[in-house]
Amino acid sequence: SDRWAEFMGYTRDEALGRHVTEFMTDESRQKYLTHCWPRLLAEGLFQDEELQFVRRSGKVADVLMSARVTYDVKGQFLRTFTVLVDITDRKMAQLALTQAQKMEALGNLTGGIAHDFNNLLQGIYGCFRPVLRRSDDAGLRRVAEAGQHAVERGARLTPQPTALARRQPLPAGPPQR
Fold first, then answer.
1. Beta-bridge mates of residue 51
2. Three-class SS of residue 142?
3. Which of 159, 147, 158, 164 is nearest to 102 (CA)?
4. Starting from the edge strand earliest in sequence, which strands make up the sheet with 77-86, in order?
5. Which alpha helices (H) appear in the chain, and where do they start and end?
6. 30-39 CB burial, b ≥16 within 10 A, e <16
7. Helix, strand, or coil (residue 65)
8. 67, 36 Cβ separation under 8 angstroms
9. 132-173: per-residue pLDDT in tens?
């Protein structure tokens, strides 16, 4: 039809006489020839098969294809009637939604890990306090101070995953001391 030729980016003359599979991706052509066409011949129809067509511009169009065979009064094959529904935008929106859901799950996971990590660091940091308050051993105090500094460096890592969990922009550059 003229509408299909326009959708695909061809003139009617350019599309006329060519088999529909010539406009499909290799994978869709294979699916059509091994699944759709045999069903059409055996059952007289197939419905809502998801296929991909390559437009003249090279862009791929996702479509739902349905087809029905029409017979004459003697029961002889007359023609096929085919309907294509462009679902390219729907597929893109579905892909974007799936990606957003993955990012939300990743944000929730990283936020939870960052929270637990921060709680662990607080516990470790607290373990060094009694050593620093009560110990007269200079070597032990240096170890405890080094431990607290390591915990403080670790604590500077948690704003990045929590920013992801809250969908905030990540801080630029390395953590500040």
1. 63
2. helix
3. 164
4. 45-54, 60-71, 77-86
5. 2-8, 12-15, 26-31, 37-43, 88-134, 138-155, 159-165
6. ebbeeebbee
7. strand
8. yes
9. 888 888 888 888 888 888 888 888 887 776 666 666 555 555
